[in-house]
Amino acid sequence: VIRQRNRGLAALTEERALLEERVRLGTAEANRAREAAERIAEDLTASEARLRGIFELPLVGIAITAPDKGWLEVNPRLCTLLGYSAGELAGMTWADLTYPDDLAADVAQFERILAGEIDCYSLEKRFVCQNREILWTSLSVGCVRHPDHTLKYTIALLQDITARKEAEAGLQASREQLRFVTNHAPVLIAQCDADRRYRFVNDGYAALFGMTPEQVVGRHPRDLMGEVAYAGAAPRMDAGLAGEPQDFDLDLPRSAVPRTLHASYAPQRDAAGRVEAEHRLHAAEKAHSDAQRRG
Questions:
Q1: What residues form DSSP beta bridges with 93?
Q2: How far, in Å, CA of 66 to CA of 23, rounded?
């Protein structure tokens, strides 16, 4: 009886030891799982803080928008650009603020995202701000989808390019004004680059060769003047591109009625003083018929 009792006690002791070991291992595993969960939570919190920091940076406007085009979340920069508070934008859609002429192009791309054809797109578009001013933006849109691939939300980045667009418009206006002035000037005007190819000609210069300015730009003077006239003018062109102004009479025997023009070549220099182009002015022609009449 005593031996049986001792064996029973030994078995209980062994089972208790096994149970304690299992508890110890389970506790250690639980502690590791808890520590891992805490690390994940810390990493997630840090990641969210980094994303929030990026979201709040005043570099570009950032918006999270819904499939119905509503504003879900916007950063302070976007509010500054559009002139609306986040609360005001929450009751609007981005379509409400899009400049009417730009809406169709944006909606067409957005509908392709809805249809699952694309996941992102970029374009330049205008918004109408709260003060009714026009904001030009470079817009980039990406999307996040549900597991079934339907659209969950979109993320839009808006960069203000209004100053660039205004500069481009000003430059275009200057070009148009220059074109108007040169086309009405009583001289034939051309500009050639260092490779002697035409950068610009006025209507009169192009008409001299029976062409339009668009047909002349990019071509070489030899193509228009012919070999004989070009051979006579080439040394003058070399000198002008070397920085020496030229003033001479230019014969153009290629035309149906041979002509002699008074030509002035002036070098154009860049900021470093290097000759980058040559301006050519040709005064009213001296017709050979005049000389014939005098003869």
A1: 70
A2: 50
Helices (H), the chain: 2-56, 76-82, 86-90, 94-97, 100-114, 162-183, 203-208, 213-216, 221-225, 227-241, 288-294
Q: Per residue in 194-205, pLDDT tens?
A: 888 999 999 988
Q: Output the CA–CA distances (angstroms, integers) from residue 116 to 120, 123, 146, 273, 279, in the order listed.
A: 10, 19, 11, 55, 55
Gap between the Cα atoms of 149 and 258, Å rounded: 73
Buried b (16+ CB within 10 A) or exposed e, 129-168: eeeeeebbbbbebebeeeeeeebebbbbbbbbbeeebeee
Closest CA to 136 of 98, 109, 173: 98
How many degrees, rounded to 5, is the angle at CA 97 between CA 56 and CA 52?
10
Euclidean distance between CA atoms 237 and 258, whole angstroms: 21
CB of 262 within 8 A of CB of 286? Answer: yes
pLDDT on residue 295: 40
Tell me how far apart the alpha carbons of residues 69 and 153 are, in angstroms, rounded to a whole number: 9
| pLDDT band at residue 106 under the 50/70/90 scheme | very high
pTM reported for the whole predicted model: 0.63
Contacts of 50 (CB under 8 A, 6+ apart): none
178's CB contacts (< 8 A; 6+ apart) are none
Stretch 119-131: mean pLDDT = 96
Per-residue pLDDT tens for 25-39? 777 777 777 777 767
